Each structure stands twice: as C-alpha cells, then as structure tokens.
C-alpha cells in the first residue's frame, strides 16, 4: 500500500491559441513560444555522400540557416507578410558545442562530427496567420549549373543519388515509473533525408512545449514538483519540383499548437486517512493525538517544576562546533585508568561538571585538612563552592512553545546524545531525564520500600509515648486558617531566586548567606558533610571515605587532570619577568593541597614544565 509503485498517472493535451499576439521580449514565460537558450533542446546535422562531407564543399551544394521573423503589415490598403532573415552560423560540434551531458553517447553516435549552431538563443512561436511568427529555416541548395566554380551536372547528380542528410536532436521522454529522474533526455538520430534529383523535399518539424507535475511525497501539501521540457512531436513531409534556385531540401522548425501535461501522484498518507475514516475523522484523530501529547507533557512539566531543579550554569555554556567535536571524540574515552589504585575515574569535560567534581573532591579532603592550620581556609573554600552551586539553580520550565518545537522539529526521533550536543534541544533532554526520574520514583515498589523504611525508622527512633503524640500533631488539623502550601511558603525558593521582584531575591540571598555563615561558626559533623556533598554530587556512599592511606596520591593525580583550563591559559599569558604570584594568584593557591603548592611554585618559574605536568 505504501510503495511508490501504487501511483496514479494522467496525461492531458491542450490546444494553444497561436493566433494571438506572441511576446518576443520574454519568450521563456510564454507557453506559446519556445526559447532554446533557456532549455536543453539542441540539434545537429550532417550532409555526406559515401562518407565525404558535402557541407564544406561549395562546388556542389550550399547550406544555410536563417531565423525568420514574420510580421503582417499594411501598406496602401494591402496587407502582406513581411519577413526579416537573420543568418545563423554553424561549426563542427566536437565535444562541447552540442548541449548533451553524456559525452560517451555523443561519440558513439558520432555527433561530434556533426555541425552545430554557434549561437543557440533563438525563439520560435506563433503561426503563419498570427501577428508575429518566428521559425527556423534550413535550406540545402545545389550549385547552379553554368557557374565557373560549380561541378558538372553529372557529378552533382551522382552526389545527390549517394547523399544523405542526417539530423540529431536532443529529444525527451517521460518515464512515470522513474521516481529519481522522470524526464529523461536522449539523442534522437532517427531523422534523415535521401535526396532525389529534380525534386525538392519540404519538412516541417513541430516542437512541442510540455509540462509535468510530480507529487512523490507521502505527506502532500499541494506543492508538487513541476518541470517544463521540449519534445519533437511530429514531422510533415512534402514533395515539390525543384525550384529555379536549385533548392533540394527545406526544413522548417516550428512550434506545435498542442501542449501535453503529465501528472503523477503517489498513494499518500492523506488518502490513507481518508479511506480509513474520512477527512473529518482523520483531523479528529490527529487532533486527539496532539491533545494527548500536550496534556501529558504539560502535566509532567508542572510536576517537574515543583520537584526538580536544573543547573543554569549548563545553560550558559555555549556549545560551538569545536566543543561539540571535542565532545564526540571524548565521549567514548571518558574513563581513564589510574595506576596507583587501579580505579577508573570519569573525567568531566564541561565547566559545570568540573566545578561540581572538584567541589566534591574538596569535601572529601576536608577529613584530612581540618586538623591542620589550613583547615578553616579550606572549609571556607568548600562553603563558597556550595553557595555558588546553590545560586546557579533555577526552576525547570517547559511550556507550549517547547512542545510545539518538540513536535514540528521531530525531537521524539532524536537520541539523548544528539539532544545533549545541540543547545536547541536541551530542554527536551531535561524533560526526558526528569520524566524518567519521576516515573522511577512513583513506582509502587519504590513507594512501598520508602514507606517501610520510614516505619522502621519511626519504630527505632520513637518510643510508644512519642508515637502516640505524633497522632495528635497540629499539622493534621484542618481549620479556617489552614493552608495547603508547603512549609517553605507560598512560593518555591527557586522561584523566588528567579523573581523579578528585587525584595524576593534579597530575602533569598539573606537566607543563603545565613545558612552558609551558620556552617562557618562550628566544625562540620558527619551529617553536615553528607548534606553539603548532596549539593554538588548526585550519588555518594560510605565508600567515598575509604582508602584513607592512599588519598594524597589520588588527590595529586586527580588535581593534575581536573584543573580548570581557564586558569592554565591565565598562567601562560603572564609575563616572564613575574617570578612570584600576586595576591589574586595567592588566593587561588589556597584551593589546592600543600603538595600542589610546591608544583605551583615550580610552574611559576618554568611554564614549560607546567605544560608537561598539565597543571
């Protein structure tokens, strides 16, 4: 049913009015006129006798070509046709002067030895009784006897009996079963004339201007592919006695009064829907699908807006062509194996991933630096990173425009990797990931496990009296002053951060500063470290704190790979005269461990060594 072979073909013929006025200035736009300069139509000819070329032998025959423009004029009450003749020069075709693409076929037929027109910009149109009439005239005339330069009558008659006038035309044929190139061009060498002594042959060659319309798409919107082409439709031969001028062959190239129109239409989805339930039913079905997609995605996006957040840092990173190419190359090599502990560590390649990975590494190093003098300064650095990560959060928004983009740009056909590398499809990627995460958390098995764990924690942490009092909490009472909002207030704190109201933003900033300062006043507890780690890392476990003995070696190796590239560029742009770091550089030095400070001083003195260490 869906094969392109199941198509509808039609051919219609129309009669053109050739008697009305013909426009000469722009014949390419006129269906009653043929302009060979704007088409692939071309012709070539040869006149031979026993293999000898007679066109170039003026002692026997003379051949000439004229472009005739006829116009009816009236003088002294008499109307007669007035003709203007323009001579057209010709030359050997060779391999370049014949308008045909297949050079092998030109050589196989021998058209390269034919004669072609030097100038191909001529127009034909109208008829004999139309106000303007254009046609092409080709005449072969024998050399008149009695002239000193002519051969004898017996010699010319012998050449006439052995002569043959041949013509090769670029003709067209329509193959409606060919969906790649339905209009095909070919060399038609079937036209030839054998001359007869004392007789004159006249031939009219009618050139037909045809049109074709092809609708080969499964989804048809009323914009078919249209083509115009020329075709030699028919010829008309006549015999007359030889004229006094010695004309033996006259060929007239004229326009045909009939136009053929070809149409092809494949079996489309519209016809399938029409047969399935009619056009109205098809629209209702398509509208139902669109309504289902809109309602589903809007509902899911409203839930995701209330539950999840996204990192706006990722939105600020513009993925140019070079960065996308680097992502594709590094995507398969994201895991690098370190020799000291044999572990495979995922190396992040975006600024956001580098930032959060480095922040989590700093949190793990706090277990070993809090007892040292640099512990407080390192602690402030960790809190500063966490504060920056908190301020970069924003609410996930997915609205009508995103859904329309999802439908019309066929985002549902793209993979996650493709959407990740193209900024225009990033919102759809976030939606897919959030939807998967939401469905995973709403799974009945997950909910039952969470409820059971909560019951076990309640049984372990609360005694009988506390459990009894939990049943009478004020939060379970519904009265006129009750509110259905959460404990965080009527608006989400992430919404307040993106609010246009400066007071709301100021309140949120004060709250964040207050929370961060509360951690600076007291040492970190184990629960504090886990809560802070959850800000910069999605998954963590007790294994993150194991292998304490080889921690320093991992820190040094990880720092050499995960260092920010912008800081490397900043180091390389410094002048060689500066031997020691400035205050701004010293502020950065507190981010690294004491072992890395030694590498810093070495790199500052020798930038070449710094490149080797990839510092």
From TrEMBL:
The transmembrane segments are 278-300
An individual GO BP term: reciprocal meiotic recombination
Q: What is this protein called?
A: Uncharacterized protein
Keyword annotations from UniProtKB, A to Z:
Membrane, Transmembrane, Transmembrane helix
List GO terms (cellular component aspect).
Answer: nucleus
């Amino acid at each position: 049913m869906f094969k392109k072979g199941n198509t509808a073909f039609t051919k219609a013929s129309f009669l053109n009015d050739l008697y009305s006025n013909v426009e000469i200035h722009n014949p390419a736009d006129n269906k009653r006129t043929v302009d060979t300069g704007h088409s692939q139509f071309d012709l070539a000819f040869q006149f031979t006798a026993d293999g000898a070329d007679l066109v170039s032998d003026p002692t026997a025959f003379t051949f000439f070509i004229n472009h005739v423009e006829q116009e009816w004029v009236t003088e002294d009450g008499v109307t007669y046709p007035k003709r203007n003749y323009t001579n057209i020069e010709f030359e050997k075709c060779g391999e370049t002067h014949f308008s045909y693409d297949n050079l092998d076929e030109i050589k196989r037929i021998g058209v390269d030895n034919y004669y072609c027109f030097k100038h191909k910009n001529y127009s034909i149109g109208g008829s004999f009784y139309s106000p303007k009439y254009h046609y092409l005239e080709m005449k072969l005339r024998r050399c008149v006897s009695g002239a000193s330069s002519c051969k004898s009558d017996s010699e010319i008659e012998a050449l006439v009996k052995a002569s043959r006038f041949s013509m090769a035309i670029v003709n067209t044929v329509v193959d409606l079963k060919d969906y790649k190139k339905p209009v095909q061009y070919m060399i038609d060498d079937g036209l030839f004339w054998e001359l007869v002594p004392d007789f004159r042959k006249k031939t009219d060659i009618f050139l037909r201007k045809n049109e074709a319309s092809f609708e080969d798409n499964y989804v048809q919107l009323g914009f078919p592919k249209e083509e115009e082409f020329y075709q030699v439709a028919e010829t008309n031969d006549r015999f007359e006695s030889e004229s006094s001028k010695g004309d033996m062959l006259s060929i007239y190239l004229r326009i045909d009064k009939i136009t053929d129109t070809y149409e092809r239409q494949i079996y489309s989805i519209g016809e399938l829907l029409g047969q399935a339930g009619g056009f109205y039913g098809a629209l209702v079905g398509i509208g139902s699908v669109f309504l289902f997609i809109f309602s589903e995605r809007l509902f899911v996006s409203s839930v995701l807006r209330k539950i999840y957040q996204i990192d706006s840092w990722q939105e600020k990173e513009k993925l140019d062509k070079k960065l996308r190419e680097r992502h594709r190359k590094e995507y398969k090599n994201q895991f690098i194996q370190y020799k000291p502990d044999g572990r495979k560590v995922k190396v992040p390649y975006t600024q956001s991933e580098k930032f959060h990975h480095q922040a989590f590494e700093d949190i793990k190093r706090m277990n070993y630096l809090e007892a040292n003098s640099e512990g407080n300064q390192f602690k402030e650095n960790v809190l500063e990173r966490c504060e920056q990560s908190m301020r970069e959060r924003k609410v996930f928004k997915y609205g009508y425009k995103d859904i329309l983009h999802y439908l019309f740009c066929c985002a549902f056909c793209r993979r996650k990797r493709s959407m990740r590398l193209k900024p225009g499809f990033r919102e759809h990627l976030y939606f897919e990931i959030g939807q998967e995460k939401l469905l995973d958390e709403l799974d009945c098995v997950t909910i039952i496990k969470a409820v059971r764990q909560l019951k076990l924690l309640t049984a372990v942490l609360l005694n009988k009296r506390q459990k009894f009092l939990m049943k009478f909490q004020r939060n379970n009472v519904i009265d006129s002053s009750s509110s259905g909002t959460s404990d965080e207030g009527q608006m989400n704190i992430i919404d307040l951060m993106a609010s246009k109201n400066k007071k709301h933003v100021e309140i949120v900033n004060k709250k964040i500063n207050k929370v961060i300062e509360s951690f600076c006043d007291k040492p970190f507890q184990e629960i504090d470290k886990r809560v802070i780690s959850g800000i910069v890392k999605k998954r963590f476990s007790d294994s993150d704190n194991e292998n304490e003995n080889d921690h320093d070696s991992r820190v040094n190796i990880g720092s050499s790979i995960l260092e920010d590239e912008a800081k490397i560029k900043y180091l390389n742009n410094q002048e060689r005269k500066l031997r020691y770091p400035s205050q701004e550089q010293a502020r950065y030095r507190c981010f690294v461990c004491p072992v890395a400070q030694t590498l810093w001083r070495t790199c500052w003195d020798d930038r070449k060594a710094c490149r080797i260490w990839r510092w």
